[in-house]
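Here is the promised in-class demo. Please do not try to memorize the tokens; focus on the logic of going from shape to residues.
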């Protein structure tokens, strides 16, 4: 598993495209409208190498900060962690980044972001569009296999995390506990 801490950056401003509506011959009115959402391919077919992952996650980091106006924490796991971790050189790329969605939503709703899920998914989609990735490049498919817990509890045998800094992203990777030889 890894934990991403996204950095603080400059503010972001959303500008909508204007639409001109013609009224009776006496007046014209301009109304702002939301831009149509871009269409993404459903499945990512671009290999996410270490270099590309750093760029993509840096872009996502910037978008999340602009959306939440604060540093954001996401827990990721799977192939992306192996690609990014300097100790694992056998894995050159992955097709996606797996993250734990439900804990993110619960944490950020408690922090006063009732629309945390929509903000996160919007930032993920915008990053996918910029890098021509599939809609599933960052997904929560593994959430269904994870156990439910009411709170985070750390036990005495939980290993300490090793921190690795990547460009604008902090990755916290955990190792399985070492068990003493009982025989």
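The designed amino acids, position by position:
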């Amino acid at each position: 598993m890894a934990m991403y801490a996204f950095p603080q950056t400059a503010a972001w401003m959303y500008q909508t495209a204007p639409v001109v509506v013609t009224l009776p011959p006496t007046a014209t009115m301009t109304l702002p409208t939301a831009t149509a959402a871009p269409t993404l391919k459903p499945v990512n077919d671009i290999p996410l190498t270490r270099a590309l992952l750093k760029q993509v996650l840096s872009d996502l980091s910037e978008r999340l900060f602009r959306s939440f106006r604060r540093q954001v924490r996401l827990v990721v796991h799977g192939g992306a962690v192996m690609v990014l971790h300097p100790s694992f050189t056998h894995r050159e790329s992955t097709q996606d980044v797996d993250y734990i969605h439900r804990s993110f939503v619960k944490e950020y709703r408690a922090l006063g972001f009732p629309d945390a899920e929509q903000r996160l998914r919007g930032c993920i989609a915008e990053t996918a569009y910029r890098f021509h990735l599939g809609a599933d490049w960052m997904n929560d498919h593994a959430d269904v296999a994870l156990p439910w817990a009411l709170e985070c509890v750390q036990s005495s045998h939980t290993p300490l995390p090793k921190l690795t800094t990547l460009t604008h992203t902090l990755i916290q990777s955990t190792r399985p506990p070492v068990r003493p030889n009982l025989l």
